[in-house]
Amino acid sequence: MSNAQVLSAFEMQAAEQRIFDTGTSVFELMEAAAGGAAEWIRRLAAGRSVTVLCGPGNNGGDGYVIAHHLREAGNEVTVIAPVEPKTDAAKQARNLWGGAVQTSGRGRGADVFVDSLFGSGLSRPLSGEHALLLRDLAERHAFKVAIDVPSGTASDTGALLNDKLPDFDVTLALGAWKFAHWLLPGRPKMGARRLVPIGVEPVEGAAQVVTKPRLSPPAVDAHKYRRGLAAIVGGKMPGAAILATEAAMRSGAGYVKLLGTQAQQRTDPGLVVDTSPLADAMADERIDAVLLGPGLGRDEEARDRLSSVLSAGKPVVLDADALVLLRPEMVPENLPVLATPHDGELEALCRAFSVIAESRRDRAIALARSSGMVVLAKGPDSVIAAPDGRIALLPPAPSWLSVAGTGDVLAGIAVSRMASGATSFDAACEAAWLHGRTAERCGAAFTPLELAHAVPGALAECL
User: Fold this and answer.
1) Which domains, ranges and CATH numbers included, belong to the chain?
2) DSSP state letter for 378
3) Distance in angstroms (rounded) separating the CA atoms of residues 251 and 248
4) What pLDDT score does 107 carry?
5) How distant is the alpha carbon of residue 112 from its chain centre?
6) How far are the Cα atoms of 262, 309, 319, 356 from residue 372, in angstroms, in the given order?
7) What is the pLDDT at residue 268?
8) Which of 39, 69, 207, 225 is the most exposed place for a label (fewest CB within 10 A)?
9) How far apart are CA 118 and CA 115, in angstroms?
10) Which whole number is the average pLDDT over 235-262?
11) For residue 89, what are the contacts with CB-CB under 8 A and spacing of at least 6?
12) Cα 366 to Cα 375: distance, rounded to the nearest angstrom
């Protein structure tokens, strides 16, 4: 969907050019974008006074048009522009405003502050003068709104280009989401994020924000095997595998088996435990997907278990210890594999697969391309990358997930979705969304077992 796509600055420029090619002028598109943003601000301001900070480019032009619309709506509006407009469209927007323009804040305070200084094209730090003006105005206003991307934030990475940048209450993304809207460290600065459509068409190959999946109840003639058999391989620390099975049993698969452990910590009598040798257990042709890693251990026996599972040819979810043990030669070509590393495991995988990249997003993309695996790089700004170049960004999940065991729950959800028939990439998206939504439903200070048991509530929202 076009309203879920995430565009780089280059992709956004190309998308806008396609609109221009249809006969729409730059100023006409500016009016559409700024008009939509102004309507948001008008409602938020609710008749209160507004200060609009305008820059010299087209983002500043948006600010002049916003100011014009707000004045027409009856708001008291002050425009501050430390630099004259430099683009033709910005100059036209300045003329549309037609009112007084201050060149400095001079202690100006009002109810609502609108940052339209610089937008998604900024890639260098703000000048000292501009940074000081931005901070000063933000401090003097009770409510703060950023247009497209807060000034001083790198659109393509979310990096903060200056120190002490202000926090905003709302950020209005124009036309499409940018990476900064979903990535740290920029995302927390933006407050609530809202999208202002301007007619941008879907861009082939664009990254996407993961949205609520559309799932279906079992068919009327379904039985446990038709709904999918998920196998979870135990290891040295059975508790982690048990957590994964608890989640898998509640995430859609018709049958969940725990392989190769006595499961002394089993909490659900419906869990089937197969203590036969792993190779024999994996020979069951009815198995649709396998999870290996939670509680596996890192000794030679664990490595043998990893090799055995990968050689069985079943779709696989790899997590935890399995990711530390994994080597490139162990991954069969064309085998559906979903890896779910946290940052430490992601670093270990990058070393093993000779991947060099800085950010979590870039590491996930490069690792997926190098390894042939779908990579769900877990963190406060999780990223999913596929070998074919697809990228998905996760909406923020509750920070209460930062507790031991919740990653095992995520892996269990993922293997259940794969066993139910989802591809590796779709299973990653579905599992990550369900994981975050379940945490929201759990509230504060939940245990991983409580999280696993709450999955059906989030899944029901998707039916």
Assistant:
1) 2-204 (3.40.50.10260), 229-460 (3.40.1190.20)
2) -
3) 5
4) 67
5) 29
6) 34, 17, 16, 16
7) 74
8) 225
9) 8
10) 91
11) 25, 26, 27, 30, 58, 61
12) 10
What is the CA 227 to chain-centroid distance, rounded? 29
Q: Could you tell me whether strands 101-102 and 110-116 are parallel, antiparallel, or unpaired per DSSP bridges? A: unpaired
pLDDT by residue (tens digit) across 162-174?
A: 999 999 999 999 9
Those residues with Cβ within 8 angstroms of residue 406's Cβ, 6 or more apart along the chain or in another chain? 435, 439, 448, 451
Q: Which two tokens stand for residue 24?
A: 């729409």
Is the pLDDT score of 1 beyond 50?
Answer: no
Give me the sheet containing 141-147, strands edge to edge: 101-102, 77-80, 50-54, 110-116, 141-147, 170-174, 192-196
Question: Is the four-CA dihedral 428, 429, 430, 435 of positive or negative sign?
Answer: positive
Q: Model-level pTM?
A: 0.93
305/88 Cα distance (integer angstroms): 65
Give the strands of the sheet with 337-339, arranged side by side: 177-178, 5-7, 207-209, 391-393, 383-385, 374-377, 337-339, 316-318, 287-292, 229-233, 255-259, 272-274
DSSP class per residue in 23-81: T--HHHHHHHHHHHHHHHHHHHHTT--EEEEE-SSHHHHHHHHHHHHHHHTT--EEEE-
Amino acid, res. 340:
T
Task: Please write the tens of the pLDDT for every residue from 314-323.
Answer: 999 999 999 9
